[in-house]
Amino acid sequence: MKKRYVKSLGVMAIAMSMLAGTPVDSFAASTSGTVSEEQTLELTGQQAQGLAEVQSVTKGVIDEAKIPEQLNVHVGDDASSQVNVTYTTVADTNTTIRLNKVGDEEAIYFQGESYVGISGKYIHEIAVSGLEAYTEYEYTVGDGFNSATGTFKTALAKNDSQTFTFAYLADTQVSNASNAKALGATLAEINVMNPDFVYLAGDITDRATNEDQWQWLFNNDGLYPTGGEDMFANSLIAITQGNHDNNEMYQHINAPEEADKIAYSFDYGCMRFISLNLEMARYSDDSRAKQEEMLRKEVEDAKANGQWVVVGFHKSLYTGASHIVDGDIIDARKFWCPILAELGVDLVLQGHDHVYSRGFVTAEGENAHPAINEDGSIEQPANAPLYMVGGHAGGLKWYSRKNYTVSEGDPLSLNYEFLDVNSTDTGSDIKKEQVITTFEVSEDAIKSVTYMFKYDTETDQITTDKYVYDEFTLERDTSGAVTSYLKGTELIVDENEDTLEYTVQYDNINEANAFEIALSYDTNVLELTESASCLDDTIFTDSSDENGVASLIIGLQTPVSSSVRRNVAKFSFKIKDGVDVDEIIVKLIKADTVELSDIEDQLSALDISSETVKGEVVTEFYSYEKACDINKDGKVTLADLAIALTKYQTTDEKCDINRDDIVNVLDYVMIASYME
Ligand SMILES: [Fe+2]
Ligand SMILES: [Fe+2]
């Protein structure tokens, strides 16, 4: 469905006076600034028409059938600048939103589209874009008179290293007026906690085609009657599709679509979140293949950016209760879990089993037993994602554990051995408590706290106050991973001089003395004239230019650190005659570096070289290639060059690759020539 963008308020005021002949008042109370003729012309007739409708109702009477309900704000494709707003009305009315930054009068407007859903209600969908990252917005939807309001905060920009929070709720799964009350208490608690966003792990309602259940999701009755509508209107949410959510769910909540419906990903600062739709994957090999492709691409890219990788889907593949050996879950586990381990996903957030559990699980289905640091934090193990199940946010049902056997080829260990925490051990299936898990995410740690409490739907009382059920901190070693910020590169074209310069910049350089950068370009339009280091004290560079790939290795003796973006290399090109500069594409394909560490391995000599000693031919085994692998990890990489650079002008044997008793650029050239 195409969504239309409506220009900002100032533009609208002028367009209105031109087309409708009346100024905008109540809906757009705070006009400010002037607008140029050019901008006014950007409004299409259709967009202006919609705004005229806004105007026409501003002096009407309240019509409850036109008041927006079930209002929610889901992350858009780019969560730092886009959101998808959805709401319903009983009667047909305009689909418009007005937003302004909290504390800022200037407003922007967007118009969406509506259609009649299966409930007979009007479904209004608005795609909002162009927002500022990590910024709180307040908004009003509706026709300008019959309206509803809310607030939300956009996501941190990709790679912004600020700490942020989110809440994780599994299986809100409203089925009747009674359990809706328990959910209302959970959602009211989320409103108090006020996380940056809320992740809902599927089974939003018990039956997505039942409009009453949607009504109860937002309007809860009981002690916290507005818990739902307050949470949904005032939080940024991200959802995944559960087995109780069929496609009718999208008549109420709109996630972005990437690989099939509702498999999508978004960046939130130092984290990439990937939501998979295992329901679609279950019934369609094609959907599964598409989602696998998306997952691999997204994880690879996130890892290159140094982000945490969190994957969300509904049906728990590792869990503490009875769904552990359902046929379709075994099948999904066999397919997805080796991939999630291989890719080194950090955290997997699941639902469906109405239990709280967690465990770091290897590709074979074993408990990875991660190392515990002195401060009690858990060291993120390699290739063993932390699989969590978030309990039950509502009041419908709680599953128990079961005895099971492991079938052929199923990566699973017996008796829930793969878990570190399982709430059935403490009677969660008997206590039937509501569960909220929260995360605080920073670049090198994820702190998680899980709360439980009990809302008694019979007596409408909280019979067990909120308490901390589980908490842990997951740490990862970010010292070796240096973030390369590919987006920040600059392309400067000087058309008069027929030259083009491309500057490669790095963020967060951490104790690095070796850099390897590669660009691809079209040799039909450009000719490389120079590649050079921008860093002081460069003692070594090695450049190549082959088949449209220009690469440069830079070495410094003394490692550098920089928390601000820094120019590292500059590539200069001559633009060939007759080339239109708009057609030039230069792509950064590699921006690597290593952090230096002391590795005192011995050099071993293999292979053959010969020299004459006292008239005898002595055959010695020596391989330059092996010698170049200074840290002895079986490959020649930038890490080896980095070590050698620190020994510049010394007689260090390990780094004296050509054995001329001095470590110098000749050795670096050899290492660079063997680098993978
Ligand atoms: Fe489920
Ligand atoms: Fe469920």
Quick summary:
With 676 residues, this protein is an alpha+beta fold.
Characterize the structure shown.
This protein has 676 residues and is α+β, with helices and mostly antiparallel strands. 20% of the residues lie in helices and 33% in strands. It contains 13 helices and 33 strands. The protein binds fe (ii) ion (2 copies).
Features:
alpha+beta, binds fe (ii) ion, Purple Acid Phosphatase, chain A, domain 2, 13 helices, Immunoglobulin-like, disordered N terminus, seven-stranded mixed sheet, 676 residues, globular
Indicate the CATH architecture of the largest domain: 4-Layer Sandwich
Morphology call: globular
Q: Would you identify the CATH H-level superfamily of the largest domain? A: Metallo-dependent phosphatases
What's the gyration radius in Å? 30 Å
Q: Poorly predicted ranges (pLDDT <50, ≥5 residues)?
A: 1-58, 480-488, 599-620
Strand order, largest beta sheet: 6-7-3-2-12-11-10-21-22-23-18
Structural class assignment: alpha+beta
Provide the helix percentage.
10-25%
What is the name of the CATH topology of the largest domain?
Answer: Purple Acid Phosphatase, chain A, domain 2
Q: Based on DSSP secondary structure assignment, what is the total number of beta strands?
A: 33
Number of helices: 13
What is the percentage of strand-forming residues? 25-35%
| Broad CATH class of the largest domain | Alpha Beta
Describe the main β-sheet briefly: 11 strands, mixed
